[in-house]
Amino acid sequence: MFLFTFLPAVILFAPLFLRYFKKSDDFKKILKVIAVILFFSYVLQLEMNLAIDRTSALHGGPFSPSLTIWMVILRWLAGIITVVGVTAPFFPKNRSFQLLLMWVAPLVLVLNILYFPQNLIAYYGYSVDPLQRFQTYAMFIQYNAILLIILLTHLSNYKKPFVFPTKRELRTLFFVFLALLPTMMPQHALQIFFGPLGSSTDGFTVIHRLTIYFSFASMAAIYIGLRNQTEDNRKLAIIVMSISSVFQYLYVQRLGLGALPLHLCNTAIFLMLIAFVFKVKSIFFFSYFVNVLGALCAIILPGVHSDAFHMSSVMFWYNHIYAFILPLLAVGLKIFPRPKFRMMMGAIGIFTIYFVAMMFVNAWFNNYETVDYFFLYSDFFVDKFPFAFPIKVHNVLLFTSGQLVFRFYWLYNLLIYIAFIILMFIMWAVYDYGFQISDSLKALHLKLHQDRMDMLSLRKEMNGRPISEPLNLEGIKMIKIEHFTKRYGSAKQPAVDDFTLEVHDGEVFGFLGHNGAGKSTTIKSLVGIQSITSGRMEVAGYDVAKQPIEAKLRIGYVSDNHAVYERLTGREYINYIADLYLVPKQERDERIEKYVKMFNLSHAIDNEIKSYSHGMKQKIVVIASLIHEPKVWILDEPLTGLDPVSSFQIKEVMREHANRGNIVFFSSHVIEVVEKICDRIAIISHGKLQGVYELKKIREQGMSLEELYMSQVAAMQADGK
Questions:
Q1: Which residues are paired to 667 by β-bridges?
Q2: Rounded distance between C-alpha atoms, residue 710 and residue 4, angstroms
Q3: DSSP-assigned letters across all residues of 155-192
Q4: Contact 540, 631 (CB under 8 A)
């Protein structure tokens, strides 16, 4: 038997490959063909009622307990190297699978060959001549195919210098092998090793709940283990699991019409393999929207009542856990793209065709034997939802064709269809929400990573100085913007392009431009509300991107929308902002008293903000922005919509703040306001800085700011901007 198994490959096939090997180093096509042969040879051995499956190591069998366990382990290992042999030729860059083929697979193959007679007894028992069974020959093909793949893998590496696996590779190989163990566990293994558990996995028993938790936990563990792997490794893992799911489904013998894989989750097993191997998106998204939901329903309401360690239970959970987690993992690991809504509508269309077909198949096949695809014919759902019983039995359509009777529970089936479609829409909502959470977590992860990189870069630039100090000691009395560019998303045109500016202490600096010129974009980046695409911004020497907290502590900001917490009183809101800036109580109380009197808010400061007028809300925002006495006070369109008195008061505060040695930087498109209160101004248009001007010099030249601005506009139009 040993010679019959081993020598044909060595004597007949190996010389042919060696001859080919002399002409070419490319074994890819041959290896892939042999891998396909190996796949089908293993499939031919399945669909069996093995003799060893009907026994237990604890209660006797064809072998002693120890030999029984050993034979199960050998079959287990043979399944693992079969999966490796089937997939490794298609992923030659995966080092772990190459090492498994070269060093682990030979040992497993030799052990299985040495115990070949016992293997046959484990398959058939003593009562049947194994040489008369085609599965025996399929096993011969399996062993020879594995042997050829091992030989060719060694030959393909013969020109490479021999390097024994490193410790890291051996460690990785160990974990890969551990990960492969559950994929090919023989379904009878638990029962043979331990006997019956004494509990079934249904009815929300403890073991049922643990199995549900395991379904979700295993998906999470696989995702965490694979998310940082290369694309090839992620694809390999998904394909290994899809092949394993087919092998596990075919492991149990099925007879008659009920053996057809037409039940939804059974169909999913084969559809997923086709989708992953041949990259068929339509089939995949049908599985993603339909099979995941069906498998989840089956996991929560399982249709299996046998002992948890019995083969029927193990088979049920293998099939449905795979059908549940594989499509989700494929999207999570970016094997397939995230679905769009139209893809779900396509899945609904395919599901409708499948549903109607199963109604007809159930009605037809039940003339010959009892079948129940998608639970449309039996009382499975009725048992769980008793109110559906009268709906089922009182709404029946009967058709006859010769001696065949076609019975359709039309209303009952229609309600199942509608319920499933509703659940699909709920699943879509869950998917969409999950994608949003995933995007948020990814953005947070990237932000934290960027913050760590910025901190390392900052420490290096500080050259031993405390990071609480300004990065640029020469810029502690200014706002400094260098080559600032801001681009939104994938927009071709930047909102602000190569903007450079310096604003010094004691200045009221005006930022002038038309609506959409880039004023608010620049200000929002300066105060840290949005990111900087490129360039650098500093506030009082602190880098806005690298020292955001320190920079913000020195900024008072009045936005252009004046959003406040309207259920707070004015005093509560100002105190809330003061808490954020760590302003001592005595100082804040003095400043609140000062500004409340200045802005005539004494009568309203303790009322809820929602009762305030627009001007009063603006004044509260101004007070809150000044409560920490900021070095830099930035205002974005601060006077829009204010009455003359309120405008005058705010302009007076701006001048007073600058006179105390601080910086006031405000934007506006109202030329008259800018001309009256500013020391210098900058004009921006279409995201480009057009110029920086001193108001005093403009007046000395006998020109108004309006004339200057209009001349800039005329020049831009002449340039075609």
A1: 511, 636
A2: 97
A3: HHTTTSPP-PPPHHHHHHHHHHHHHHGGGG--TTHHHH
A4: yes
Taking the C-alpha atoms of residue 91 and residue 28, their distance in angstroms, rounded to an integer, is: 10
Distance, CA of 242 to chain centre: 20
Q: Which pair of structure tokens corresponds to residue 523?
A: 């200000």
User: Token digits for 449?
Assistant: 């990573």
Q: Which two tokens stand for residue 575?
A: 């105190």
Contact 155, 30 (CB under 8 A): no
Q: What CATH class has 473-718?
A: alpha beta
Tens digit of pLDDT for each residue in 586-637?
999 999 999 999 888 999 999 999 999 888 898 899 999 999 999 999 998 8
Rounded Cα distance between 542 and 179, Å, is 50
User: Which ranges constitute the DSSP H helices of 279-393?
Assistant: 281-286, 292-300, 311-332, 341-365, 380-384, 388-393
CA 421 to CA 426: how far, in whole Å? 9
Count Cβ atoms within 10 A of the Cβ of residue 238 and give its class: 0-12 exposed, 13-18 middle, 19 or more buried.
buried
Cβ distance 238 to 326 under 8 Å? yes
What is the model's pTM? 0.71
For 102, counting Cβ atoms within 10 Å of its Cβ (0-12 exposed, 13-18 middle, 19+ buried), the class is middle
DSSP 448: H
- Token digits of residue 351: 């599901």
**Angle 242-243-244 (CA atoms, 0-180°, nearest 5)?**
90
The pLDDT tens digits of the residues spanning 29-83 come to 888 989 999 999 998 887 655 656 655 544 555 677 888 888 889 989 999 999 9
> How many C-beta atoms surround the C-beta of residue 442 within 10 A?
10
